Structure formats: structure tokens, C-alpha cells
Automatic annotation (TrEMBL), chain B:
Compartment(s): Cell membrane
Domain of life: Bacteria
Pfam families in alphabetical order: BPD_transp_1
Occurrences of domain ABC transmembrane type-1 (ranges): 142-356
Family assignment from sequence similarity: Belongs to the binding-protein-dependent transport system permease family.
Name of the featured protein: ABC transporter permease
């Protein structure tokens, strides 16, 4: 009986272009989630999103590459010059060696890097080696960047070197070191081959030195990075399954449980029905968002707890009154009486006879509910009550908001998660509205 | 001759009024009971079944210890005596806050205080006038919220009903279809559009302020003040308008379409009545009570939807207050806000009931049957 109805519905649905577009968007999002969950395992995503070490080679607040290239810019990407590829000259002497490590790179970008760091690693040394740094520009100038005693893991923040900044005429090193010496007020990049010469003395015959010169770019990847150097594409990718799961579970949870409770109330009548009605009225005056805020502040902001509270508060919602009105005439329908006559139990009547009857009417509501919950999760995250460990779209928005991304001109930071949220919302809403027209008998004649 | 019908009508009016009053009292009592249960649930959640008290006990103890240690007059005291002093201060504070009584007793006490809107004192926050009472803090923020959301709601409501009426007349036109196509854009909440509006109108094309309620310092003259207020309101208003106007028009249009295919409307059309008369008498009048219902339901929905929009636009209303309270972990303010929200919702529901009774002639019929 129902199979035909579903098939008819599908046939009718295909006539609505908005439904097809919506389904295409949803399919894309589901595909993206599947890819994400397989490509970046959950634990790895959480681990990385915590920040810190995995991101040390990423620039801070870099925009997406494609935006820059599309607008005709040629901002630098991150350049990493490692000593592995360099030709190291070795000169042994009594009790040690002298190493000359040239770190050379070609620089022909239009803008300056956002930061320069040198990572040095010297493992297995009994006595700490010493290195002198010499910066050589394409036009033959040489600048000493001072000497460093190298520990096991060292980070030389060249950009933070205040003395160097004074010697460069008040320009921060990552600009001054790469600027043309023309004395203009606005610095200009001098293109060409640069070299950072590491003149090191090691007191060991075997162990060497690893060096990595990092010129952090101003653009990075397809989504850019945030203030903690984290690649935003990770959060944008992982935000997809989280948003879909949250929206879907919340929508399924609330609608189905609400429906079952409404049906039970209608079937048993009496005090069961009365209790459900009163509970609904109490719940209607409980404001959802403030309660969620309260729970998030006092207990935990775990996304699963939030989901639970959302479902719990959503169960006894105004929807119950609506379903009740729909179920009341069904209760008196002859086929229910027939079912009773052949001895069907209460539970069987509720679950197999009453609920399936209004399920089709429920589908549009259900689909249009999903984006509401997706945005609810984002709303909570924007309020600072996002899940503490999971990367979600809302948390990206919250970070951007708290760092005044719009004010500072990091538009990509806000636009990317917002567009994804909007896409999700539109996809489900378009499908839902079309479903409404197909499945809602009142609208079908229009 | 006309005296008898007049008297009858007056008697009818009295009877209606009596029924209405009885109904109102009944609803009011029912709602009070509902608020009672709702607020009690809130208190239970907020206190984690008494666990908040444990945290407060720890806090009181550390505060007392800190105070005694910091007092130069007590520096030379022997440790046992000092510990005894700390204990004494802790027990005094515990007694003052009545933390020594069982939670159930205190929860009833909290409940009756919350019902009287005696919401206690904030832990860290204070109102702009310097009051630490939660009630003052919240009431100070209410007008800003009411102003913004009241005007947005009225705007959305009236615009959508009127556009929907005219669309239902031109069913299937290009305009009608474009509104239907735009309806899914309402999936996004107002704050979401707010972010984009700020991006465009405050940063890319700096025409309007990005946030706040008036310029700082506030203008002296009332006209300049109002002008500044309107300038600041424009963006949040637009955000809310955008986020709900299309779906609102869509649902009203559908509603009117369903009702304009009723038999009595067809009949009126067949009689050749002008279309504005049909609209007013045959479509709007019978559908008035559902229209009012949905208006008030919209109010309910928007009471709490305001929090993030206010935060995004830095609007000094209840929403940003709640946000600040989260930041300070100021529990009394958060609970107070939930209680106030619950009250506001209850008042809205009550108004809904009364209006419904006023508009629905069946209430009078109930009286006659008796």
C-alpha cells in the first residue's frame, strides 16, 4: 500500500527543479563527509585541531591561495628550505668539524612573507654546536643574523629579532631582509636568489645539524589558516559530518519520539494524554537556547550532551499538539477498529497502524527541521559553547568572531564556514519545501 | 421598541465578559502552575541536583582562607588559631547562604524567590547603574531587546501578510514563483545574515555602524539620539527581516490560498463582489484568529532567537547580557535570564489564549450551552 505512494511521490518530486538541486547539494555534502571520515580519522582530526606542533610550518592567518590568484595577486606561499637538499661543505679540525650549510631559495612573489623562522635540530651531540647566520641577497649584500648555540630542538624567530629590525632601518625582518635597497618609503620585493648561510662549528665527528628555513606565506591551501596556524580546511571538512550528524540525529530524534508520544497519548487517552499535554505546556515556556546555554555553562559543552538536551527539550514541543490533531481522527478510523477486532495489542496499533499513517506528512517537516538544528549547533558554537575538541563550522566562526576577522580583513575566515552552513541549510530547505508540496495533501490541489 | 434588543445585547455582553473573565482566571492559574514547574526544573538543572553548592562551598572556603591570610593584623596568629578562625568564617558564610540545609528545602526557597522575581545578586556582573541585583541587570537590558525585536517582528508580520494576500491573488505569477524559490533562504537564522550585512555595509562599503545601539558618547538632543538609534538598528533589522520574510510570505500565501478556495469565498466571487471586499470580509475575517495565533507564536520563537543576533551586532539587550554572563560564568544571571524568558513566554501564551477567546465566537457559544 505504501510502496506505490512512495513511488508516486518520487515521480512527482522529480518535477521540481528545486528538489533536484537540494538533493544534489545533500548528496555532495554526504559525499564530502564520507571522504572526510575516511581520509582524516576522527582521532587524528581531534589531535591536529588541538593545535601546536603539527602546524609549526603553517603561516598565521593566511588567506586561501585561489582567492589571491583569482583576484590577480601573487602573494607568497610558504617556502620551506631544508638542509637535506643543500650541499654541505665540511672542514674537519682538531676536536670537531666546521660545516657550511647554504639554504638557498628563489623569491619572486609580489608580497613579503608573513614571518621568517629558522628551525635547527642537532641530535646526538655531547657539546652543543654553534652556528653563525649570514643572509645573502641577490644583489650581493650580506647581513649577519648573529650567532646561536644550538640545542636539540631550536627555533630562531628571525621575525622577532628587534636588534635586526633596528639595523634594517625599522622594518620588520621578514620585510627588511627581502626588500630592495632603494630607500623608498613603501618597501618593494627584490626578486632573485637568496641564501642563508649557516656557518656551524660542531664538536662531534658523526652527528650533524638539520636546519629548516621557513618563509611563511600570506596564502595557504584552499581554505587558509587561522590565528593558531591551523589549516582551516581541516575544520571545514570535519564540520560537514558533524553538522550533518547533529542535524539528522536531532531531527530524527525529536520528530520520531514526538510522534510516538503523541500517538501513545491519543491512543490511551485519560491521564496519559493529560500528562503529555501538561508537560508540553511546561516545555513551551522553557526557552530552548537559554537552557542550552545554561547546560553548556554548568555541565559540559560536549556536542553529544547538547544533542541530548536538544532532543529532550524538542520532544514535548508544539509539534505534539499538531500530531495530536492529525491522529485524533485516525483513532476513530474503521481500520483501527478492525485491527482491534482481530486482537491487535495496544503497542501494535500505535506503532503499526497509527504512526505509519501520518509518516508521509511528517517527512517534509523532518527535512526542513535538519537545517534548523545545523544552525543551532553553529549558534551554540558562536556563543562560545561549541564542543571543546571537535572542529566544527560554528567554532571556526566563533574563532573568527573573537579575533575580529572582519575588522582585520580576514574575510575568508568568516565566509567559508558561512557558505558551507548556508549550502547545507539551502539543500535541506529546498528539498523540504518541494517534499511539502508533494506530500502535503492540502497543498496538492494548488 | 429598540430597548429590549439593546438590553439583551448588554446582557449578552455581560455574560461574554463574565465567561471571558472566568476563562482568563482559569488560564492564568494553569499558566502560573506551568511556570512554577518550569522554573523548578530550571533550578534543578542549574543546581545539578545540589552539586553547584559543593563548588560554592569550596569557593567560600578558599575565599575565607585567602582573607585571613591576607589580613596583616592576623599575621602573628598561631596556625591552629588561624585555622579555627577560617572554619568559623566558613560556617558563618554557610549559614548565611543556608548551605547547611538539605537541597530540597533550599530548592523550594529558591523557587518561591524566583517566582517573586527576587533573582538574587550577581556574582561578578553589575548593571550600568551599578546595581548587583540580577533583576536590575536584566530589566535594564529589556527595553533594548523589546525595541529591536518588537519592530522587527511587526515589520515582518505586516509586510508578509500584505504581500501574501496580494500574491495569493496573483497565484502562479513570476513574482509568486520567485518568492517560493526564495523561501528556503530562511533556513539561516538572522545572525547569519547579520555577519554578511556587517561585512558588506560596515567594512566593504562603510555606510552603517557595525554594531552598538547609539554612537558614543550618546547625542544630547532626543532627535539626534533617535537618528543614531535608527542608523544602528538598520542592519540588525534588515538581518532579521531577510531571515524570516520569505518563508513568512510563503506560509501566509499558502494559508490564504487554501482559504480562498473555500466554498463561501467562491460564492462571494460568483456574486460578483469586488476583490478587496472578498479579501477583507471573506478571507481575512474568518482567518483572523489563526493569524493572531501565528503572530504570537512568532513572538515566542523570536524571544530566544535573539541572543546571537544581539551578540553579533553588539546590541545591549538580553541576548548579549546572557552572552556576557556565560563569559563570566555568572550563574545567578544565567538562571535569572532563563526565569525571565520563561515569564515572558508565559505572558505571551496568556495573551494568545485571551485573544483567541476574544476572536473566536465559539467561546460565547460555550456559555449559551450551559
Amino acid at each position: 500500500m505504501t510502496g506505490g505512494r512512495w513511488r508516486d511521490g518520487w515521480g512527482e518530486l522529480r518535477r521540481y527543479p528545486s528538489a533536484l538541486v537540494g538533493m544534489a547539494i545533500i548528496a555532495m555534502l554526504v559525499g564530502l563527509s564520507l571522504y572526510t571520515v575516511i581520509a582524516i580519522p576522527y582521532s587524528e582530526a581531534l589531535d591536529k585541531w588541538r593545535g601546536g606542533e603539527p602546524w609549526r610550518l603553517h603561516p598565521v592567518n593566511a588567506g586561501p591561495v585561489w582567492v589571491d590568484r583569482l583576484t590577480g595577486g601573487h602573494q607568497p606561499r610558504t617556502l620551506i628550505v631544508a638542509s637535506d637538499a643543500a650541499e654541505i661543505e665540511t672542514a674537519p679540525f682538531e676536536g670537531g668539524r666546521r660545516l657550511r650549510i647554504p639554504l638557498a631559495f628563489d623569491y619572486d612573489y609580489a608580497g613579503f612573507p608573513s614571518e621568517i623562522n629558522l628551525f635547527l635540530r642537532a641530535e646526538g651531540h655531547a657539546q652543543r654546536p654553534f652556528a653563525r647566520l649570514l643572509w645573502q641577497t641577490p644583489d650581493g649584500r650580506e647581513l649577519s643574523l648573529g650567532g646561536h648555540r644550538i640545542g636539540r630542538e631550536d627555533r630562531v624567530s628571525i621575525s622577532q629579532d628587534r636588534a635586526l629590525e633596528r639595523r634594517l632601518g625599522g622594518r620588520v625582518p621578514h620585510i627588511g631582509l627581502l626588500a630592495a635597497p632603494d630607500g623608498e618609503a613603501v618597501p618593494r620585493v627584490q626578486p632573485g636568489r637568496y641564501r642563508l648561510l649557516l656557518d656551524a662549528v660542531v664538536f662531534d665527528d658523526e652527528a650533524g645539524i638539520d636546519a629548516e628555513l621557513v618563509l611563511y606565506g600570506r596564502v595557504h591551501g584552499i581554505a587558509g589558516t587561522d590565528h593558531q596556524r591551523r589549516d582551516l580546511s581541516l575544520a571545514l571538512l570535519w564540520g560537514t559530518p558533524v553538522a550533518l550528524a547533529f542535524g539528522l540525529l536531532a531531527a530524527v530524534g525529536t520528530t520520531l519520539i514526538t510522534l510516538v508520544i503523541a500517538a501513545v497519548g491519543v491512543w490511551y487517552r485519560g491521564w496519559v494524554d493529560a500528562t503529555i499535554q501538561r508537560l508540553t505546556e511546561v516545555n513551551m515556556i522553557l526557552p530552548l537556547l537559554p537552557i542550552l546555554v545554561m547546560v553548556g555553562t554548568l555541565y559540559s559543552t560536549s556536542i553529544w550532551l547538547m544533542l541530548g538536551v536538544v532532543v529532550l527539550l524538542g520532544i514535548f514541543s508544539a509539534g505534539i499538539k499538531m500530531y495530536r490533531a492529525m491522529l485524533l481522527p485516525i483513532r476513530e478510523a474503521p481500520y483501527i477498529e478492525a485491527a482491534q477486532a482481530y486482537g491487535a495489542g495496544n503497542l501494535r496499533i500505535v506503532m503499526r497502524y497509527m504512526i505509519p499513517r501520518i509518516l508521509p506528512v511528517l517527512i517534509p517537516t523532518f527535512v526542513t527541521l535538519i537545517p534548523t538544528f545545523v544552525f543551532l549547533e553553529a549558534s551554540l558554537a558562536v556563543l562560545g559553547l561549541g564542543d571543546p575538541v571537535l572542529p566544527t563550522w560554528g567554532k571556526v566562526l566563533n574563532d573568527a568572531q573573537s579575533r575580529s576577522a572582519l575588522y582585520n580583513g580576514y574575510y575568508y575566515w568568516v565566509v567559508a564556514p558561512a557558505v558551507l552552513l548556508m549550502l547545507t541549510g539551502l539543500g535541506f530547505a529546498m528539498l523540504g519545501f518541494a517534499l511539502d508540496r508533494v506530500f502535503n495533501p492540502r497543498l496538492r490541489s494548488l | 421598541m429598540s430597548k429590549a434588543p439593546l438590553a439583551a445585547r448588554r446582557r449578552g455582553l455581560w455574560r461574554d465578559l463574565r465567561h471571558l473573565l472566568a476563562y482568563a482566571v482559569k488560564r492564568l492559574l494553569a499558566l502560573l502552575l506551568t511556570v512554577l514547574v518550569g522554573v523548578y526544573l530550571t533550578i534543578l538543572i542549574a543546581n545539578m541536583g545540589g552539586q553547584v553548592d559543593e563548588l560554592r562551598l569550596v569557593q567560600i572556603r578558599s575565599q575565607a582562607a585567602e582573607a585571613v591570610r591576607a589580613d596583616p593584623a592576623l599575621q602573628d596568629m598561631p596556625p591552629e588559631e588561624r585555622n579555627a578562625l577560617i572554619e568559623r568564617r566558613v560556617s558563618l558564610e554557610v549559614e548565611r547562604l543556608r548551605l547547611d540545609q538539605p537541597f530540597v528545602v533550599r530548592s523550594v526557597d529558591y523557587l518561591q524567590r524566583a517566582m517573586r522575581l527576587d533573582l538574587g545578586r550577581a556574582e561578578q556582573m553589575h548593571s550600568d547603574l551599578g546595581s548587583r541585583a540580577v533583576y536590575d541587570i536584566i530589566v535594564e537590558r529589556l527595553p533594548a531587546t523589546l525595541l529591536l525585536f518588537g519592530s522587527a517582528n511587526l515589520l515582518v508580520f505586516f509586510t508578509s501578510v500584505f504581500i501574501a494576500l496580494s500574491l495569493s491573488r496573483r497565484y502562479g505569477s513570476a513574482l509568486d514563483r520567485s518568492v517560493i524559490a526564495l523561501a528556503p533562504t530562511s533556513a539561516a537564522p538572522g545572525w547569519f545574515y547579520g555577519i554578511f550585512l556587517i561585512l558588506v555595509f560596515a567594512f566593504l562599503v562603510p555606510l552603517l555602524p557595525a554594531g552598538g545601539m547609539v554612537t558614543a558618547p550618546p547625542p544630547e538632543s532626543p532627535w539626534a539620539y533617535a537618528a543614531s538609534l535608527v542608523r544602528h538598528m538598520l542592519l540588525p533589522l534588515t538581518a532579521m527581516f531577510l531571515s524570516s520574510i520569505f518563508v513568512s510570505i510563503y506560509s501566509w500565501r499558502t494559508f490564504f490560498l487554501i482559504h480562498s478556495s473555500e466554498d463561501y469565498v467562491e460564492m462571494a466571487r460568483a456574486k460578483g463582489l469586488p476583490s478587496h471586499l472578498i479579501e477583507r470580509r471573506y478571507i481575512l475575517r474568518p482567518t483572523l484568529s489563526p493569524i493572531i495565533t501565528s503572530f504570537l507564536l512568532m513572538l515566542i520563537g523570536l524571544w530566544s532567537g535573539a541572543i546571537i543576533l544581539e551578540q553579533v551586532f553588539n546590541w545591549p539587550g538580553l541576548g548579549s547580557l546572557l552572552f556576557q554572563a556565560i563569559g563570566h560564568r555568572d550563574t545567578p544571571v544565567i538562571i535569572g535570564a532563563v526565569v525571565i524568558f520563561a515569564y515572558l513566554l508565559a505572558v505571551t501564551v496568556f495573551l494568545l489564549d485571551i485573544l483567541y477567546a476574544l476572536l473566536d465566537p465559539r467561546v460565547r457559544l460555550v456559555g449559551e450551552r450551559r
